Amino acid sequence: MPSLAPSRSRAPRRIVAGEHHRSRHHGRRNLRAYLFLAPFLVVFATFIVTPAVFGLYISVTNWSPFRKRIDFVGLANYIDLFTPGALASQNFWQSMGATGWFVLWSVPLLLIIPLLVSLLLNQKLRGMTVFRTIFFAPYVLGVAIIGLVWGYIFDTQSGILNHLLHSIGVAQDIPWTVNTPWVWVSLVGVTIWWTMGLNTVIFLAGLKGINTDLYEAAAIDGAGRFQAFCHVTLPGLRPVMLFITTTTVLASANMFGQSYLLTRGGPGTATRTAIMYISDQGLSQNNMAGATAMSYILFLILAVISIINFQVQKDRTEGRGA
């Protein structure tokens, strides 16, 4: 009777050889993947990682392009921002307060209005493609154009808006860009007009991704439009809502151009946002170390807000799944 020992010894060898071949093939695939990623990784390391690391170094020194000697100061630049009565602390947190007011007023409107507009544009009516283009068109304009056009519209003495208000019986000129609360109305209104198109398009994409069978099932169960909106549309848009909320908060917290061009941070410093103050300290006042510390504090605050937003949305999704 022939022995089975040779076949038993050859089988493990074939398995080992197959695993070795698959390992080499997997390694070649990984190498090709990294080669394709290499240009992006180089750009990312050059323009993101390196400036971030260098910024951390600047924030713990008294760095200045005009200093011959750079001294390590530890956390002194950060401590100054949390020292009551310090000029840097007072001005920085005042600008953070202005940023907070802008975020508080702009973000909810940049969620609600685009959502309502996207619901209208999602209807199967003739000409909807044209209206979608119209709503998105302002977003492609640069902030300099936005500031120039709306600065002329809001001008207190010769602006188009006050002229139109006079024609309908409003006798008093409204100081859109020089007095509160009108400066906030102007900034928030311009920002909504300018950026709502992007959020509208994203909401539209989210609406297209909701299964229409869910609406039919809701109608069979006797749900009206409002109930279908609450129990089908909003849950279906939750991932989109998370993305839009996060990006809108970050964009609003980094608002600079609108305030700089329309109000110059006024009246006084009422609309001087954190980015305006940081850029002024770093570029005009040559306080690069302090400005860098401010920027990292702003980054940490925005990171915490983003994490909380992700966690809240995650808890709601898990609660619904449970």
List the SSEs and their pairings.
Blueprint: H1 5-59, H2 76-81, H3 87-121, H4 128-136, H5 143-154, H6 160-167, H7 182-208, H8 212-220, H9 225-236, H10 238-253, H11 257-262, H12 274-284, H13 288-321
Helix pairs in contact: 1-13, 3-7, 3-10, 3-12, 4-7, 10-13, 12-13
Walk me through what this model shows.
- This protein is mostly helical and 322 residues long.
- The protein folds into two domains: 1-53; 87-321, MetI-like fold (Orthogonal Bundle).
- It has 13 helices and no strands.
- It is globular.
- It starts with a helix and ends with a helix.
- The mean pLDDT is 87.
What gross morphology would you assign?
globular
Count of beta strands: 0
The CATH topology name of the largest domain reads: MetI-like fold
Q: What is the helical fraction, as a range of percent?
A: over 70%
Mean of all residue-level pLDDT scores: 87
| Biggest sheet record | none
- Quick one: CATH class of the largest domain? Mainly Alpha
Spans of at least 5 consecutive residues whose pLDDT stays below 50 are: none
What is the rounded Rg?
28 Å
Beta percentage is under 5%
CATH architecture of the largest domain: Orthogonal Bundle
- What structural class is derived from the secondary structure elements? mainly alpha
| Tally of contiguous helical segments | 13
